[in-house]
Structure formats: structure tokens, C-alpha cells
Design brief:
The complex is a heterodimer. By secondary structure, chain A is an all-alpha fold. Chain A has helices spanning about 10-35, 55-120, 125-129. Chain B is mostly helical. Chain B has one domain (about 20-150). Chain B has helices spanning about 1-15, 15-20, 20-40, 45, 60-80, 85-115, 125-150. The chains are: A mainly alpha, B mainly alpha. At the A-B interface, helix 1 of A face helix 6 and helix 7 of B.
């Protein structure tokens, strides 16, 4: 491959040198801007600070507070109802248990009577005496 | 779900510390590759569109040696970036500055060559935006130095 003829480089060398200086300056400026960049610090709130709201924001906050209160009341009511129902349920269970026990007692009594009748019918009642 | 999978794939293929400074890693490797190509074929600078670089002293051997040095220093600085909080970002900024100078000069050489040859080289756009990326790398190295020193 033939070597291209080098043109008159007078002005081009100056362009190259000028661009070289501009590039160095630009790079240093970018680096310096990076070094000077301010990082956002963590936001800290003073504990004694108080905030006051007015206008539509206050109305919205009041409504939210009301809704929150109603929700709290509903939750409290639910909890009370649950406790009441639990007590009733336990009472019902007690009644059922008593009924089952009394039923068992009656069944046993009936079984005894039937056994006695069977023994009398067999005549073994007499023999046993 | 798709985002999570793509993120996992990205993390597996490109580790996070590398992906954050991927441009610098790639240009470092590019410089080493360029030095290798010049070493086995110096006429690529002497004869091609970059012969005007010799006006400012960037001949083929100089370009190969400087590219190797800068590529190696940059890779070392990138590799030990977190462990080298003061000098790592400074070296990275210096190497990015050198690379910006090199890409701009190559851009100029190709621009002049395009005027002579009668066609516009595609490399003009490539080297211009590479130089822009290097300026951003300078800024990034500055912010890293700022964050590590503050």
C-alpha cells in the first residue's frame, strides 16, 4: 500500500495542539466538577420541631383522622363481640357436656333395669337368691 | 419476575462492581487490544488514516507503549478501586484524560484523512463519542474520589 502524500501540516498541527490543550482542560474541568459534587446528606429532623397545617391539607388530615378513629372504634367493637361470643360458645359447650353426662347416666340406669328384667325372666333371679 | 430474572442474569454474567464501570473496563481492554494490533502490524498507524498522529509525536511504537501502559494502569486502578480510595480514582481520571486526548486526536486525524480521501470515515463518530465517554469517566472518577475521601 502506497504511503499517502503528507499535506502541508502547518495549520493542522496548530489545530491538533489547540485541541490537545482544550481536551486536557476539559478533562480536568470534568474531574474537578466530579470532585466538587455535593452529595445529598441524610435528612435529620429536629425532635422539637412542630408542624402546623392549614387549608385543604387540614381538612384532608381531619377527615383522615376521623376515618382512623372510626376504624379504631370498629376494631374495638369487633374485639368485644368476639370475647362475648367466645363466652357464649363456652357456656353452650358446658350445657352440651352436662346433657351428655345425664344422658349417659340414664342409659346406664335403663341398662341395669333391663338386666334385672332379663334375670327375672330367666328365673336366675330366684336361683341367685 | 422478568426484571428479577434479567437482573440475576446480568449479575451472573457481569459482576456488579464491573458493570458500574463497564465503559472504563472496555476501553482499557480496547487499548490493550489496540497495542497488540499495532505491535504485530505497525503500518496500521503509519499508513492508514492515523498517520497524521505523528505530527504530535504519536508514532506507532509510542502509541503501542502508551496504550499498554495506560490500559494496564487503568485495569489495576479499576480492579483495586475500593481498596485504593485515594489514588485509584486519581489514576482512573488520569487514564480517562489520556484516553480522551488520544480519541480526540484520532478523531482529528480521521477528519483530516476524510478530507483528503474524499469519503468520510465511520471512525469519526466512533472516536468522538468515545472521547465524550472518557470525559464522563473523568467526572465519575472525580465523584468516586470525592465520595471515598469525604
Amino acid at each position: 500500500m502506497a504511503t499517502p502524500v503528507v499535506p502541508d501540516l502547518g495549520p493542522f498541527v496548530l489545530v491538533q495542539a489547540g485541541i490537545f490543550i482544550v481536551t486536557v482542560g476539559g478533562g480536568l474541568v470534568f474531574w474537578w466538577r466530579g470532585l466538587r459534587k455535593k452529595f445529598q446528606t441524610e435528612y435529620t429532623r429536629d425532635a422539637s420541631a412542630q408542624y402546623f397545617f392549614d387549608g385543604p391539607l387540614k381538612i384532608a388530615l381531619d377527615r383522615l383522622e376521623g376515618a382512623y378513629r372510626v376504624l379504631g372504634e370498629m376494631r374495638h367493637e369487633n374485639e368485644t363481640t368476639v370475647v362475648e361470643f367466645r363466652g357464649r360458645h363456652e357456656a353452650e359447650l358446658d350445657i352440651l357436656r352436662e346433657l351428655r353426662e345425664s344422658s349417659d347416666t340414664r342409659t346406664n340406669t335403663l341398662k341395669d333395669i333391663l338386666e334385672q328384667i332379663r334375670l327375672i325372666a330367666d328365673g336366675s333371679h330366684r336361683r341367685l337368691r | 419476575m422478568v426484571n428479577m430474572i434479567s437482573m440475576e442474569i446480568k449479575t451472573v454474567i457481569i459482576p456488579l462492581p464491573i458493570s458500574r464501570r463497564l465503559f472504563e473496563w472496555m476501553t482499557s481492554l480496547m487499548m490493550l487490544g489496540m497495542a497488540f494490533v499495532i505491535a504485530i502490524n505497525p503500518s496500521t498507524v503509519k499508513v492508514g488514516g492515523f498517520y497524521l498522529l505523528s505530527n504530535i509525536g504519536i508514532t506507532a511504537p509510542v502509541l503501542a507503549v502508551l496504550s499498554t501502559l495506560i490500559g494496564c494502569i487503568r485495569i489495576a486502578a479499576l480492579f483495586a478501586n475500593g481498596l485504593w480510595p485515594l489514588w485509584g480514582p486519581r489514576f482512573r481520571a488520569g487514564c480517562a484524560l489520556f484516553a480522551a486526548i488520544l480519541w480526540i486526536q484520532m478523531f482529528l486525524a480521521l477528519l483530516a484523512w476524510s478530507k483528503e480521501s474524499g469519503y468520510i470515515s465511520i471512525g469519526i463518530a466512533v472516536y468522538l463519542f468515545l472521547a465524550l465517554g472518557e470525559f464522563i469517566s473523568c467526572y465519575r472518577a472525580g465523584t468516586d474520589g470525592n465520595a471515598s475521601c469525604s
